[in-house]
Amino acid sequence: MVGVEPEIAQRPTRRVKTSGSDKTVGSISHAMLILWSAVVVLPLLWTFMSSFKTTKEIFASPFGLPATWDLTNYLSAWNQYSFGRMFVNTVIVVGFALVLVMVLGAMCAYVLARFAFPGSRAIYYLMLAGLMFPVFLAIVPLFFILRNMGLLNTLPGLIITYVAFALPFTVFFLFAFFKTLPDEIQEAAYVDGASEWRTFFQVMLPMAKPGMASVAIFNFLGLWNQFILPIALNTDQSNYVLSQGMAAFASSAGYAVNFGALFAAVIITVVPVLIIYVIFQRQLQGSVSQGTMK
Amino acid sequence: MGPSGSLIQKAPRRRRRKLTFDYVSFMAVFLGLPLAIFLIFVISPFAQAVYYSLTDWTGFSPEMNFIGIDNYVKLFQNSTFITSMGNNILLAIIVPLVTLSIALLFATLITVGGPSHGQVRGLGASSFYRVVSFFPYVIPAIVIGILWAQIYTPSGLLNGILTSLGIDSAEGFAWLGDERTAIWATIFVIVWGFVGFYMVLFIAAIKGIPAETFEAVRIDGAGRFRTAISITIPLIRDNIQTAYIYVGIMALDAFVYMAALNPFGGPSNTTLVMSQYLFRTAFTKGQFGQASAMGVVLAVITLLFAAAVFTVNRLTGGKDDGGRS
């Protein structure tokens, strides 16, 4: 489909500034991309608009502007439907898990990348296996492991499982990063009398900052979006995180749902990540290329 | 699919260290702690699941009898499970194909789709398209599902647009409630969520190709289509392979989209997927042995899928041995 009919028209001999076929191809391409952008943006705009409407208004006309632009839906989503508490839960769980997985992942990647010891390769491949298998295979036993530890339906239980499942990805990404740091710097730190601990925290870790930033963004998105782990391992309503609260709310009472509040809750869930995205847009898009896929 | 396995070969040769307190405590915390968490919460549940799949355990009772492969035999006689497996396989074929074709097309337009004179360059306004298309990737999947479930409802946005365009048969049509459209409407949502990410990925890959290569084929007289087929795609095929495996694995899971769009498996189970059926079998019916067997089947299909993509890529001339992906 790329450039349907252009090539015959412009052989490489002297060309006019902008050939007719160029214009056609250009317009078709722009049309396609604009259409796609609209398909992406319209639902989001519609959600934003609907978040200010009453349920009745939403069903009366899908396009109409809300009668009033007030925050009623946001207040009821935040208070009455407890999205405020879920928001706080999510921030706690994602915050702790993110810090922990970054620290543990960096430490583990550092050791695997820079220290030769028997079994290091086996550990590396074990982690690779952890990345390949579907979480679903683990979900049933995980439920009982957490129950036996008294961590089922608790925030610490969620945090530790988030950390465990985000660990392989973090280690892989940072492994490559620590590998590229020059040996001499580490040696110099030893010569200066730094301990292993100090060498890592004061010398090697700061050098891995760019890699850490990329992984942190990916992990943030992944953890904020986490769905299956909380659904299976956290059935206590007061410990709900946003994603599972959204699902529960959407499916709760069929058509009795307060749709205005539902859309407001969607906006509450999306806005933090959109803000992060807009701020870190460049780094994020840059790290897509050097990150996940290598 | 982390970074390469080949990197591991050039691990620095290091002198044997003395077992000082510093070194031992360092190893215990830096390697032991993360590894313990990983083994307890990731590896051990995987291993246990394989064992449970060979028992008749119901989860909450202490009794557990070893019944061999009975669960698997039952599974393949269960027509609902077979249906869900079929749906998964359909998703794993269609979703990557559509997602990656669109992503590749857009990435090509944005990087090298510009005018055919002067320097090889992309279309104008390309960074706008790139940023906007990436939006869905940062929206939680469950929210994407809920949002589209609302768009698809009989009185939702889609039918509103269609009826205002004069397509009256769309009035009150339940996109997710009709056997003919449920799975396709679902596939569209997943594609919607993923195109932007892979577009950005392919843009990076295409930008990694030296500009001279494109200049050279242009001088040789190749048009846009020819350039895409003979230069762009072959040169980034390893990225395409990796992306194919990623999207495919995601499509084999698909739980979160289904939970939002079709929580009960869709009309006559037309959108039921294995992960959903597994979840129901485990946590609603309490058949944990049976559910674990489903998990094992899902894992095996996932591995077979990845192996198939590697094999196809190799047979068609790819050089990636899996190390770099």
UniProtKB/TrEMBL annotation, chain A:
InterPro entries: MetI-like, MetI-like_sf
Membrane topology (UniProt): Multi-pass membrane protein
Record field: transmembrane: 24-46, 86-112, 124-146, 158-178, 212-233, 253-280
Entry keywords, A to Z: Cell membrane, Membrane, Transmembrane, Transmembrane helix, Transport
Domain of life: Bacteria
Start and end residues of each stretch annotated as Disordered: 1-22
Domain ABC transmembrane type-1: from-to ranges: 87-280
Subcellular location: Cell membrane
PROSITE patterns per record: ABC_TM1
Keyword Magnesium applies: no
Protein family (similarity comment): Belongs to the binding-protein-dependent transport system permease family.
The name this protein goes by in its record: Carbohydrate ABC transporter permease
Organism name: Paramicrobacterium chengjingii
Automatic annotation (TrEMBL), chain B:
InterPro entries registered for this protein in UniProt: ABC_transporter_permease, MetI-like, MetI-like_sf
Residue span, ABC transmembrane type-1 domain: 85-309
CDD domains found in the cross-reference section: TM_PBP2
Main location: membrane
Keywords noted in UniProt: Cell membrane, Membrane, Transmembrane, Transmembrane helix, Transport
Family that this chain belongs to: Belongs to the binding-protein-dependent transport system permease family.
Native source organism of the sequence: Paramicrobacterium chengjingii
Compartments in which it is found: Cell membrane
Record's bilayer topology term: Multi-pass membrane protein
Protein name according to UniProt: Sugar ABC transporter permease
Transmembrane segment boundaries: 21-47, 89-110, 131-151, 182-206, 243-264, 288-310
A Pfam family it matches: BPD_transp_1
Presence of keyword Cytoplasm: no
Gene3D superfamilies: MetI-like
Signal peptide start-end: none
Keyword match Kinase: no
